Amino acid sequence: MKNTRVAVALLSITTGSYLNAQGWAALYALDVAHAVAELPEEHYAITFDRVLPMPASQLIFSWNAYRPARGYFIFYVQVRTQGARRWSEWYKLALWGAGEQRSFEQLFSDDPSFCYVRFEMPSGTLAHECRVKIEAHAGAKLTDIARVMISAADYQKFSSEVGKGKFFSFPSLIIDKVPQFSQMEIDHADRDRMCSPTSLSMVLSYLLKRPIDPYTFARGVFDGGLKSYGSWPFNTAHAFERVDGRYYFAVARLNSFAHLYGFLRNRLPVVVSVRGALRGMPAGRTYADGHLLVVVGWDESHKRVLVHDPAFVSRHEVAHSYAIDDFLAAWERSYRLAYVVEPCVD
Question: Is residue 63 part of a domain?
């Protein structure tokens, strides 16, 4: 790939909004579309400087954009700790475009590191400010980007809910008409690695009221850097373009099960990452490397989480449930990672 010169000087924009900013994790939206619309002329790069909603030991970046018909975007980040005079170096996060998409890796022992999907601060330090840069290359236009999402988390403030599930008191509910797809029924050698696109295909099929083929969706999310279908930001970015901008999607860490339940109450399924054993999981599976499934409801009388788990061998088994404390333990091993959905409101 040839380097493309960025022809216009960068602008510093500070628009955005907090989507949640309490607890150990927070999600922040940078409103790229409105910022670009207010520019007096076409630009090919833009930066956003922002004090983070909370000091963070880890950041996760995702974006909602229409894939350019030609060209590509490159996303970068810098951070600064409290009181520091200088910003960190620029870290290249991802290239996303018409013919290629890949994430990157920059690992250091005493400096911040980026590992494909996560930006990690060195032990004992917290990021207080963040600067995001987006470059449009080879015909791509910044007007195709709607939002950049920043999920900030401070692991030192994480508080487990394992063992507390029996005390939860939420009205039972189930989101009806979410299709059931099994990744094991996909006619492809990599089907065992397609839990993330299969889970999102169920969510999109529900939102759009028409079936979204999991394999077709998976082809749009493969990360050439990570060599995986499970890249979190590529999955949510592709989800946004597949719904034609009708919903926003973000990678987030949630503060609690009550936080997750709030999405269910709004009739929005939540894709979550679980890790490790779950009683009643598909035979022969361990989820040792992580697994994505869809939460569709809650059974108050039995204290069970209602899910669509794509790892079952047949779609007829995908609708399932897990005991709340088993679910919490597995979800917390992934530090409550989730793909969350929000309707777009003009």
Answer: yes
